[in-house]
Specification:
heterodimer; A: about 140 residues; mainly alpha; B: about 140 residues; about 0% strand
């Protein structure tokens, strides 16, 4: 129960941050990506603020032998820079640019009940399942 | 671009960074939303964390939308295009192992070479998509 509640608090803070930063406004996200047009740089400050705080706290947390309520840190282990990484990121960028939604803001927008968010999230879950099937397929 | 917009950006970003650092300190995990969603129901010890994080994210979004609907913008394209975009985002983040949070915030902070490649790639294709599809449909 403690693990669930603490995770929910982190998710709540994350949602508040997305909303305050303007990430839940698809038109603003597209304005940020519209570098050749009427560029709106606000989201660069969201990214800069997030990286500054996380990078600082990362240095402190890294000194610990273990997290507070788990037995170890789950650091990413993948190292390969390959077609799957670049191709996946490229597809994600196309979807992000088309919709102005990336996964966090789309989920935070779900509760507002907007049909656009509901359709996007349902399709995203389907796309994720498709991705896992592709990743499992023999090459 | 106003000072208020800069401060909103920095404040929102700082909260996202704080929430992500809390995930690392408490649960020892990377706060990557696409991965948390994609593996949400997987068995194992991380499931409680994933479901708790998603519950907090979605329910807080709902509470904020009720208080301040203007913080949540309408979809910028028709539903069929958003469905295609959603499939691309789900497929792409699964194959590329991350999105704006996992690669963008956590990965860049760790100076992960994979995340740097991913972020540069998705920023380029996203900007190209907006350039081709238009910012104001």
């Amino acid at each position: 129960m403690k693990a669930f509640l603490l995770a929910a608090i982190a998710g709540a803070l994350f949602a508040i941050g997305l909303t305050v930063g303007g990430m839940t406004l698809p038109a603003k996200v597209i304005g940020f990506l519209d570098v050749g047009g009427a560029w709106d740089p606000q989201l660069a400050f969201v990214m800069a603020g997030a990286i500054a705080v996380y990078a600082l706290l990362l240095r402190v947390v890294r000194r610990r032998a273990a997290p507070l309520i788990a037995d170890r840190f789950h650091w990413p282990t993948a190292r390969a820079i390959d077609l799957r990484l670049a191709g996946g990121a490229a597809l994600f960028g196309v979807g992000w640019g088309l919709s102005g939604y990336c996964p966090g803001p789309a989920l935070a927008s779900l509760g507002g009940g907007a049909p656009s968010a509901i359709v996007f999230v349902a399709a995203m879950i389907g796309g994720s399942a498709l991705g896992r099937a592709v990743a499992r397929a023999p090459r | 671009m106003t000072v208020v917009a800069v401060l909103h950006g920095l404040a929102g970003g700082s909260l996202i960074g704080l929430a992500s650092a809390m995930v690392l300190l408490v649960h020892g995990r990377i706060a990557g939303v696409s991965g948390i969603l994609g593996h949400a129901a997987d068995a194992g010890r991380g499931r409680t964390f994933r479901l708790g994080f998603l519950a907090g994210l979605v329910l807080t979004g709902a509470a904020l939308a009720a208080r301040q609907p203007s913080a949540f913008g309408a979809g910028v394209r028709g539903l069929p295009v958003l469905a295609v975009a959603g499939v691309l985002v789900g497929l792409g983040t699964t194959l590329g192992n991350g999105c704006t949070s996992g690669h963008g915030v956590c990965g860049l902070s760790r100076r992960s070479p994979r995340s740097i490649v991913a972020v540069v790639t998705f920023l380029i294709t996203a900007a190209l998509t907006v350039a081709i599809a238009g910012a104001h449909p």
